[in-house]
Amino acid sequence: MTTTPARQEYEVPLQPLPGLSLERDLPLAQRLWQQAWLRKTVILVLLALIWEAVARYTANDLLLPTFLQTAAAFWDGMASGELPAKVGVSLVVLLKGYVLGIVLAFGLTSLAVSTQFGRDLLGTLTSMFNPLPAIALLPLALLWFGLGDNSLIFVLVHSVLWALALNTYAGFLGVSETLRMAGRNYGLRGLRLVLHILVPAALPSILSGLKIGWAFAWRTLIAAELVFGASSGKGGLGWYIFQNRNELYTDKVFAGLAVVILIGLLVEGLVFNTLERLTVRRWGMQR
Questions:
Q1: Which residues share a beta bridge with 234?
Q2: Are 126 and 109 in contact (CB under 8 A)?
Q3: Each residue of 118-141: pLDDT tens digit?
Q4: What is the pTM of this model?
Q5: How far apart are CA 157 and CA 151, in angstroms?
Q6: Which of 20, 66, 129, 168 is in the most buried spot, having the most CB atoms within 10 Å?
């Protein structure tokens, strides 16, 4: 019986190909276009140009002021301090209702994942109140709480609570049983299990619920201020829009609407995108 000798191992050194660069040099324009902020800026500029062209074509400042007229009204409102004051009034009320809605949503979902009664309670309440528009509760809020910030906070809590609770609960249900058992093996029960296991694992769904709740709360507040008017002698951004509409200052109305949009873009870009980048994207839980 003959044995085959083992083949000797060896390496073949590879030489770089002449005239071929391993680094791909992209043109400057292509490198710039890969920046998301630049692409979004181009989109906004195009929308502004379309707005300006349509407004000049209609030639009716009362119905549609030009972009330049709206920008001038926006600058005047910022320089006089009127717009920042209105925005400050609205944001203070918004944060109160938003934070209270988050606390109540977290309490409901924590109860739902811990007990059968909590699951039935959350399912029943969301089925009842989630389809109900928050602005429809404003007359009832005025009857219960009177003229003041409490009425606005009541409708804001309603707009935030159910969307956030549903997304958070769906995220909790999606947590694998392996993680749950690992937490129980470490002796985690009840609220400690929720905080240390369920919340980190369900963070993408929670962040989605926070964004949806913010959008609902922001537009509900503006709509409520349009109907409700001034609170405690102070009017917010919605009241600024409504008041200028009554006085036929259409450029100021559009300036107020532009502020609503800008605040939405800033919160989305600076708050939620940064939070996602520092958490779920960094941890590989979201692309």
A1: 231
A2: no
A3: 888 888 888 888 888 888 888 888
A4: 0.77
A5: 10
A6: 168
